[in-house]
């Protein structure tokens, strides 16, 4: 195994799920290694501590070792070691079949790596796996069209929020998420304390065969509207408002179930002042990183100051935490919410904290604005003669769908998010500031989208 581990510093930075700050890890060492299968291929389950400029993280890297080089796996070949060729096991269909077989009751014991199946579940043994395409933070494998195994790449001690919330919602009989079939957890040696810790490693869910993601559907609607420059959002064939309404309802119902099964809390005015301070701190950091924010800083701070003056407490509960149109799937049975991991760069304790559900609503409203405006970047930049008119159309689409979403939410909840305008504005502002930094780092050409929101929220 040590020879295979020596290949990781070179290979990891090329994996899109590898989010460590520096381009090349400073060191990689195993914190748990389990030989899951001693045949051809050998299948190793490896948890590796990766140190980098900003600290250290633990990554999950299942590997398969084959006697002969397999051409079909060339794209996931890590390199050669004395006893064979090393591959990313999640792309090696024989290795992934072996992993799935470990959910069976009579599977060989793998010690500190444990496979669990929910009661009355049929695991689709024998179905071939396919890695879902796209630049995701984790690696998800579809087993036929029956199940999806989401293998968390960066892992943490304690409960993984995605697994925790999916499990709680499944036990509550909630049908607005994909059914949870099982999960994997495991032990490793915490590099800092030297103690053995346990954490969630993977989640097996039912595959939603008819799913289209919210971003694809919403942006198709916007495209229709742009193609009909003279028509209003409610007049074009691709009007999305009914879907937004239903999405608002689904969001409210998931919030309601989470409150029922995981409880609620109260955020006192002093806690709100802490939240406002944290938001102001994030704004200051963002201004230092993205100078375009500076002219709007004072106007944005007003939304945080309003929170500081609030005297009534706020009800809080577990929420989605990183909510946008890419986190919702439309199936023939309605909307389903996925990916409850929260903001990946935040510490787990923060991601598992309770917040006002208005925060999820504010994030989804930001996503409507993104969906409406992104074609202004890609297809109709400012030099396009239609640009100004389409900006107007984009605002209209966002307004219509935000209203529909809030109407749907209010129809299924005691809470109408619009009755909390100050919270909504503060969370929208905090999200837009986060997005400015995200886009400046990841997609600079998209920066005008959150900057337009910042300008509006700053009252310019
Ligand atoms: N149960 C499911 N059925 C079908 N497709 C799914 C399911 N869950 C997720 N997906 C697809 O997989 C993608 C990645 O899932 P997600 O949980 O968001 O992983 P990540 O955190 O790695 O981005 C989603 O964008 C969606 O297209
Ligand atoms: O999917 P993640 O939870 O990792 O979220 C990150 O990436 C998102 C982009 O994929 C980013 O979302 C922003 O862009 C979306 C369109 O691509 C838009 O719908 C969202 O509203 C907008 O925030 C998200 O901010 C980031 O954390």
Automatic annotation (TrEMBL):
Domain Maltokinase N-terminal cap: 11-92
Signal peptide per UniProt: none
Name of the protein: Maltokinase
Similarity section: Belongs to the aminoglycoside phosphotransferase family.
Enzyme class, UniProt record, top EC level: transferase
Any one GO MF annotation of this record: kinase activity
Record GO biological process: glycogen biosynthetic process
């Amino acid at each position: 195994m040590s020879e295979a581990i020596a290949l990781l510093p070179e290979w990891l930075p090329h994996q899109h799920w590898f989010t460590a700050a520096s381009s090349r890890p400073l060191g990689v060492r195993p914190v748990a290694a389990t030989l899951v299968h001693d045949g051809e291929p050998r299948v190793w389950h490896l948890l590796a501590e990766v140190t980098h400029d900003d600290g250290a993280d633990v990554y999950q890297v299942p590997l398969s070792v084959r006697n002969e080089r397999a051409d079909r796996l060339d794209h996931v070949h890590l390199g050669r070691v004395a006893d064979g060729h090393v591959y990313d096991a999640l792309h090696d269909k024989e290795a992934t079949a072996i992993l799935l077989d470990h959910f069976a009751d009579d599977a060989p014991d793998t010690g500190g790596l444990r496979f669990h199946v929910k009661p009355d579940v049929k695991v689709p043994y024998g179905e071939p796996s396919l890695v879902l395409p796209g630049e995701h933070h984790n690696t998800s494998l579809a087993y036929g069209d029956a199940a999806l195994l989401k293998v968390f790449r960066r892992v943490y001690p304690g409960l993984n929020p995605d697994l925790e919330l999916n499990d709680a919602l499944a036990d509550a009989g909630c049908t607005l998420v994909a059914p949870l079939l099982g999960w994997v957890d495991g032990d490793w040696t915490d590099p800092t304390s030297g103690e053995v810790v346990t954490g969630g490693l993977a989640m097996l869910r039912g595959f939603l065969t008819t799913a289209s993601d919210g971003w694809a559907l919403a942006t198709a609607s916007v495209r229709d509207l742009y193609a009909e420059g003279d028509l209003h959002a409610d007049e074009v064939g691709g009007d999305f408002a009914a879907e937004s309404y239903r999405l608002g309802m689904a969001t409210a119902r998931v919030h309601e179930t989470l409150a029922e099964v995981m409880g609620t809390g109260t955020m006192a005015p002093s806690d709100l002042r802490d939240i406002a301070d944290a938001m102001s701190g994030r704004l200051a950091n963002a201004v230092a990183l993205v100078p375009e924010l500076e002219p709007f800083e004072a106007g944005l701070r007003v939304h945080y100051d309003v929170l500081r003056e609030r005297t009534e407490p706020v009800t809080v509960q577990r929420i989605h935490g990183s909510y946008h149109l890419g986190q919702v799937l439309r199936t023939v049975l309605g909307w389903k919410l996925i990916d409850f991991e929260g903001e990946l760069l935040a510490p787990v304790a923060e991601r598992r904290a309770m917040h006002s559900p208005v925060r999820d609503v504010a994030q989804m409203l930001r996503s409507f604005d993104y969906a409406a405006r992104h074609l202004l970047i890609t297809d109709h930049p400012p030099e396009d003669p239609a640009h100004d008119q389409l900006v107007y159309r984009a605002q209209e689409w966002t307004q219509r769908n935000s209203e529909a979403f809030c109407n749907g939410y209010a129809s299924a909840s005691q809470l109408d998010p619009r009755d909390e305008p100050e919270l909504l504005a503060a969370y929208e502002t905090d999200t837009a500031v986060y997005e400015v930094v995200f886009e400046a780092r990841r997609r600079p050409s998209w920066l005008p989208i959150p900057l337009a929101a910042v300008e509006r929220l700053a009252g310019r």
